[in-house]
Hints:
Blueprint: E1 13-15, H1 19-40, H2 53-70, E2 77-81, E3 84-88, E4 93-96, E5 103-105, E6 112-117, E7 121-129, H3 134-150
Antiparallel strand pairs: 1-2, 2-3, 3-4, 5-6, 6-7
Helix pairs in contact: 1-2
Amino acid sequence: xxxxxxxxxxxxxxxxxxxxxxxxFWAAGVVIAIHxxxxxxxxxxxxxxxxxxxxxxxxxxxxxxxxxxxxMPTRARLRVGPAGVGVRNLVGERLWEWDDVQxxxxxxxxxxxxxxxxxxxHIPVLAVQARDxxxxxxxxxxxxxxxxxxxxxx
Length: 154
């Protein structure tokens, strides 16, 4: 099932992490600042190599690409509704129907939750992280309430 085909109002819980967003935006800002500074100051003194504007722009462009990669964790999201559980980590979102979902738990030594699936399989849920403390606990509690409402009895 395509998670984008489900209307937005069909989701009872939409959770995104707070801590990793702050860290990712901060890291992207630092990367851009460093590349911008070095790009603009690249030819401040002659080192024996001819440095042109294309070199400067290239270095700054690399900084923006690296900053974009730093922002990828901000895409993490957990959505829960009657259609199932949608998990978007770094790249794409996948929707599991309630028949396949067995629960959501934190591993003993992990920093993000796992969506439990049949046959001892699990999917990391990067949106629900231990660093978010009370927000993550509230999300786990709400997930379990919705699981009790929508999941078939086992």
